[in-house]
Amino acid sequence: MKKLLAAIAAALAFLLPRTVEAEAAAATVASKATYTGAGVSLGGMAMSSDLVAWAGLVVAVGGFLVNWHYRRKADRMEAQARAEDAIARAKADARAEQLHQLRMEYLRNGSNPVTNFGGLGEDD
Questions:
Q1: How far apart are CA 9 and CA 25, in angstroms?
Q2: How many independent structural domains does the chain possess?
Q3: Does residue 25 fall inside a structural domain?
Q4: Residue 88: what pLDDT?
Q5: Strands annotated E in the chain
Q6: Is the pLDDT of residue 12 over 70?
Q7: Of 15, 30, 27, which is closest to residue 60 (Cα–Cα)?
Q8: Burial class, 67, CB count within 10 angstroms (exposed 0-12 / middle 13-18 / buried 19+)
Q9: Which residues constitute the signal peptide according to the record (predicted)?
Q10: Could you tell me the CA-to-CA distances from 105 to 93, 96, 111, 116, 118 in Å, in that order?
């Protein structure tokens, strides 16, 4: 009975606010519910109990659907994070290239970009 309640709670978890940890927990519970439902279904079929077999099948399918939903959502979140990382790396690379070009310009003009502080004797 506890496993059935856990499966139902996992199936309804999409209505609640989620975090990454909560989504991972829901996917884990859904995976366990799938296996439990499949086992109950097979046991019901072995005992020739149609009600138990159908209940197990429903739990297995429900667990599969919840697991599929959260795995798909996790994949989307990972893809979004990879895209954001790629954008951040591209910006950092562009900035590094800009700084490199400025250093090269200083060196072409005969200045040292590390030690050139302008006129040290001048007051602003």
A1: 11
A2: 1
A3: yes
A4: 94
A5: none
A6: no
A7: 30
A8: buried
A9: 1-22
A10: 18, 14, 9, 13, 15
Q: Are 35 and 51 a contacting pair, CB within 8 Å?
A: no
For 92, the token pair is 């950092």
Is this model's pTM higher than 0.85 or not?
no
What Å distances lie between residue 90 and 7, 81, 107, CA to CA? 43, 14, 26
Residue 119 lies in a domain: no
Rounded Cα distance, 94 and 86, in Å:
12
User: How open is the CA angle 96-101-104, to the nearest 5 degrees?
Assistant: 125
**Any domain includes 48:** yes
Q: Which residue range(s) make up the domain with 19?
A: 2-84
- Return the percentage of the chain with pLDDT > 70, whole number: 56
In a domain, 99, yes or no: no
Q: Looking at residue 107, what is its pLDDT?
A: 78
Q: How many residues does the chain have?
A: 124
Residue type, 39: G
